[in-house]
Design goal:
The longest helix is centred in the middle third of the chain and has 12 residues. The model has no long low-confidence stretch (mean pLDDT about 90). Helices cover about 25% and strands about 35% of the residues. The protein has a three-stranded antiparallel β-sheet with strand order 2-1-3. The chain is α+β, with helices and mostly antiparallel strands. It is globular, with a radius of gyration of 14 Å. It has one domain.
């Protein structure tokens, strides 16, 4: 049987430590964590996803979190 797991996403934003809680049946991906961080810190967030035929050097989520000042993202199960 699959269990719902709890995860803590720890990160730095502009040099300050912060965290958020996530739940899921598997460990969240880095992009899922980035999206949740953006949702937490940007009111009325609007995101454009990269088109499948584009080959960007960095994903939109990665660029947006870097612009926000987010770094050192770590995911751990609790």
């Amino acid at each position: 049987m699959t269990r719902l797991e709890h995860y803590i996403v720890q990160y730095s934003i502009n040099g300050r430590s912060d965290s958020l809680a996530m739940r899921g049946y598997g460990e969240p991906t880095l992009d899922q964590a980035r999206l949740q961080i953006l949702l937490k810190h940007i009111p009325q967030l609007q995101i454009a996803e990269d088109a499948p035929w584009e080959r960007p050097t960095r994903s939109s989520l990665e660029s947006r979190t870097e612009e926000l000042g987010v770094s050192d993202i770590r995911i751990r199960r609790t």
